[in-house]
Amino acid sequence: MGQSETVQARYIMLGGFLGAGKTTAVAALAQHLTAKGLRVGLITNDQGSELVDTAMLRAHGFATEEIPGGCFCCRFNSLVDAATKPDVFIAEPVGSCTDLVATVTYPLRRIYGAQFVIAPLSVLVDPIRAERILGLAEGKKFSDKVLYIYRKQLEEADLIVVTKSELLPAERLQSLLAWLAGEFPHAEILDVSVRENRGLADWFARLETGEQRTRATMEVDYELYAESEALLGWLNATVQLASADGFDSDAVLTQLARDIQTRLAGAEIAHLKMTLSPDGGLGDIAVINLVRSDFVPELSLRLEAPVPASQLIINCRAEADPDLIRAAVRAAVAELPKHFPGLTAQLITSNPSAPASPSPRTATWHRGRDGTECHPYPASVVTFSSASRMRLRSSPPP
Ligand SMILES: Nc1nc2c(ncn2[C@@H]2O[C@H](COP(=O)(O)OP(=O)(O)O)[C@@H](O)[C@H]2O)c(=O)[nH]1
Ligand SMILES: [Mg+2]
Q1: 23 CB within 6 A, ligand 1
Q2: I need a surface site. Which of 22, 41, 306, 360 has the fewest CB within 10 A?
Q3: Ligand 1 contact, 271 CB (< 6 A)
Q4: What is the pTM of this model?
């Protein structure tokens, strides 16, 4: 028996609602583990293709592949058999997804048995979103049906991880933590800030050494879950931008995000994320995120120099009809040349106007048949990255 067959790989899953900070935390955890000499494989799962998360992970130096039409467990087969099997898999499920223990962890245990140690399930929580949803603060929130998914995600967490903790004053953060502890007594509650590197060592240590407890399957009303999922319309689009004199990518992204935000004013945005990759570039990209309708779009990566031509990827998820989201994005793209003379913006692809809902009800998901149990999102894309070859952009080449 080869060494890779005797050593158990660790499977770590970071769940949580759209925009909670999963991809950011996945990248931080991957860097942490890679620095310890471990081989890390990343699995993200999102809807459609042309994914911002893929572009983000690539920009962090992870070799990343999108596997279209994938579903979590079936695809896992090929990843597990890969020649250079990772020591640790870190998985990010779709942010509107729940029942992960039954649909992912449980099949993993059954199909792969002793090959894996499964770490406690983390469910990440954006504190500002949480305060509103839980009624601790005023502000726009989703409809009750969408909140069903949100609560179910928390219900199955082993670790509830309040992210972006630097955003809340200490007193409000303590109230939120106390409320979560009272409401979800089976979970451990942690607070972290990836941006300020707070609380990460404690959380990561639990993920490196802990194991998920087995407990009774969570009750899920799949009719309600499907309705709730379907309320969150999504749109992925690719746009080619060009300007003979070069354009300011940060200004273009900010203008576009604000315009889409204004046009979707009646709907609650769960996550609008966009990346801009210069044609022929060396991997540097600009990234903008908006995680609430009444927040400001935030540039998390910037490009210094003016860009002559580049590809823009737009992923938008909001509680709105997909046609409305599509119309808002199209109109905002069409308006860009008015704000930036000399710029051309051509919409290359976008998903169909009414994408089939990747809802659990309509999905071909199978529970109970060994070897064929799948994550209930057959329309989604599994992204697999190898962090072992990762190189921080700021560090010198090896
Ligand atoms: N202020 C703050 N923002 C963060 C932190 N971690 C992530 N974010 C931001 O939250 C937004 C959503 O993050 P992302 O990782 O894409 O969330 P996901 O949808 O759950 O994968 C992005 O704008 C991130 O930059 C943090 O520790 N502090
Ligand atoms: Mg993500």
Answers
A1: yes
A2: 306
A3: yes
A4: 0.89
